[in-house]
Please model this.
Amino acid sequence: MDFKNHDLVEPFDVPGIRYAEKPLELAPELHSVWITLDNPKQLNSYTTQMVKGVILGMRRASNDRACVAVVFTGAGERAFCTGGNTAEYAEYYAGRPEEYAQYMRLFNDMVSAILMCDKPVICRVNGMRIAGGQEIGMACDFSVAQDLAAFGQAGPRHGSAPDGGSTDFLPLFVGIEAGMESCTLCEHWSAHKARRLGLITKVVPGLKLNGEYVPNPLVETSRWTDEFGDVVHGEFLTGEARAAGKALLKQGVVDLTRLDEAVDELIGKLAVTFPGCLSKTIASVRKHKLAHWDANKESNRAWLALNMMTEARTGFRAFNEGGRACRDADLLLLRRRLAQGAVWSPELVEELLEPAHEAACAGATS
Model:
């Protein structure tokens, strides 16, 4: 049969995005589509061009008649995605609200493309899922994570609000108070805590020590409930226990075999459902996300664009210019200056950036 082509554009390569088909073992004429954020040196943060690639990839997979499910993941072992590309934000969009509004139109379209994909979308969480990475991850229908992954937000700590989906989606997953805690305090959750709170579908081990899988040594593991290592609380360790965990972590190797097996298992289960009934069920469950997303995405886009003149301009520059030594602006100084009646100005921004600049200089000379 000669099918009509419903794609908007012919397939082409987009820098930073890998699009691949993986045949099903039990039915090789069917396949899953893997869309991979391929920017591992910057923890798979998405550039403007990569956002376009995700949109095109989701549309292409939707129209793929032999596709059973989409797997959305990141390259490497450290991160699924840590959000928007901070260098691009700081060096191009900071101080340009009109440009950022155009960017946020693309970002909103990316989230909507995931939510409107005609195939079930599985987030394969191969590492950190932070900030905008958390948001596009929550837009997916399922999340399967290796237990070294961390989940969380960054907005209020770095000059933004998590209004690219987290303020809409997170309370639906974990409730109002846990969602409030994550969105405001920006403290990371372990994969085990994320699973306990209902944020993700499944956790599997990712660390091998002496050839055997072991639980994440940075996480409190008071009781195991199955072979994949679900735990009761899953809080990150602190102090000396965390230092000991880091030392143990360095002795092991990351092996994502179990993660891929769990993803393939889920795809296999989806494949043995009636496709029309599956699509309708997914669309019906997605309605709860879409109701909040569609109600707020445009007003959030407008605010996020305007914020590029003030707090985002400061926060993104501090993160980008401070390097690993210090990525924070002087937030207590900001509160004092505003209480004294200061107005936003280039001079105020530079004053707030001094800790980051000093840390960068210290790191360069050490």
